[in-house]
Amino acid sequence: MEALAGSRFYFPCVKPPTINHHQIRRTQRLMITRASIAVEQKNPETKVALVRIGTRGSPLALAQAYETKSKLIAAHEELAEDGAIEIVIIKTTGDKILSQPLADIGGKGLFTKEIDEALLNNEIDIAVHSMKDVPTYLPDKIFLPCNLEREDVRDAFISTTAASLADLPDGSVVGTASLRRKSQLLHRYPSLKVQDNFRGNVQTRLRKLNEGIVQATLLALAGLKRLDMTENVSSVLSIDDMLPAVAQGAIGIACLNDDDKMVNYLASLNHEETRLAISCERAFLETLDGSCRTPIAGYACRDENGDCFFRGLVASTDGKKVIETSRRGPYAFDDMVSMGRDAGKELLSKAGPGFFDPR
Asked: In its UniProt record, which GO terms are filed under biological process (predicted)?
């Protein structure tokens, strides 16, 4: 494991994603809008599903659930039968309370708690999550053995008036619910303003943008790709300009640790390179004890030599102080978890007492 000095980093491992979602998306476009009705009006004569997939009800969450369903069907013949897989929509605390910043209503776990409870109560068999919403701790008996292949990790800049952040006039308002984005944005463009309770699903945020509530917003490119909404993107931010959230672009699928059938199903879908990268990043986040109150970013990937390259960052919410570090080492689980933890300890030491206290 090797610590790397310097405040700017070149990411040789950032390349266009290889995932082809074309066929999956055709199914999503047909089915997502009908999902809530289909679940609520389930025919009592329909046979019991072999796999019940728990998910939030947003268009993006449903796109991820249907992607999971398609992959399960492709890998297991018996799941291709009509009714073999059921999508179960679960409303989470984070979906119910939209008027307050996430940090003020509990931070991590707001989009997973109710889904975890459904899993523990045997109301669903597997749970599909955006990995960046998943706390670094999991409830007892819940196991997360599977990450699907990661999408593009970068953030997208969207505006009706400017082609890039650099083109925004001084004083322009950028809407984001992410302290990570806010701090990095203000660090590079201190003349801009941030509306930091810019919450809602992708469609809601784009509507607010079109209504002129803000002049621009930043969204995960992965979500826009999964929704086939990249036509809204004005430009894509480089990793060096906007380091992603830990686990951004990755889908995680959980089940009960004693449910061998589901564990086997999920093992067939797991993308190991993604799982290892996410493990490195989450070890970094866990070491920092990160929450929605602290701007934290981290990204691990395989470089041109096959090694792991990790970069991590913590910042003050006003963007005036940004502390960064990086590591390079073998692309193997133990080494990568060690890298993440070591990088987290370094930033804790550099930040000093009080840096992570609520403000």
From this structure: chlorophyll biosynthetic process; heme biosynthetic process
Our measurement of the distance from residue 327's CA atom to the centroid of its chain's CA atoms, rounded to an integer in Å, reads 22
CA–CA distance, 235 with 245 (Å, rounded to integer) = 18
Q: What value does the mean pLDDT take over residues 135-144?
A: 93
Q: Is the dihedral of CA 116, 343, 155, 145 positive or negative?
A: negative
If you count them, how many residues does the chain have?
Answer: 359
* Catalytic machinery residues: 133
* Burial per residue of 143-181, b for 16 or more beta-carbon CB atoms within 10 angstroms, e otherwise: bbbbbbbbbbbbbbbbbeebeebeebeeebbbbbbbbbb
The predicted pLDDT at position 41 comes to 40
pLDDT at 130: 94
Half-sphere exposure of 242 (CA within 13 A, CB side): 26
Measure Cα distances from 83 to 47, 59, 140 in Å.
7, 21, 30
- Residues 21, 179, 147, 154, CA torsion sign: positive
Name the 3-class secondary structure at 315: strand
Instruction: Say which range, 3-12, 71-80, 82-91, 170-179, has the weakest mean pLDDT.
Output: 3-12
What are the strands of the beta sheet with 2-4, ordered from one edge?
2-4, 322-329, 308-315, 296-302
The DSSP output letter for 222 is H
Q: Looking at the predicted structure, is the pLDDT value of residue 261 above 70?
A: yes
pTM assigned to the model:
0.84
Q: Where are the beta strands (DSSP E) in 222-336?
A: 235-236, 251-256, 296-302, 308-315, 322-329
98/321: higher pLDDT: 321
- Helix (H) / strand (E) element for 180: namely helix 179-188
pLDDT above 60 (res 299): yes
CA distance 93 to 105: 9
Phi, psi of 296 (to 5 degrees): -130, 140
φ/ψ of residue 194, rounded to 5:
-125, 125
Give the distance, in angstroms, between the CA of residue 46 and the centroid of all CA atoms in the same chain.
34
pLDDT at 289 exceeding the cut of 90 = no
Distance CA 65, CA 51 (A): 12
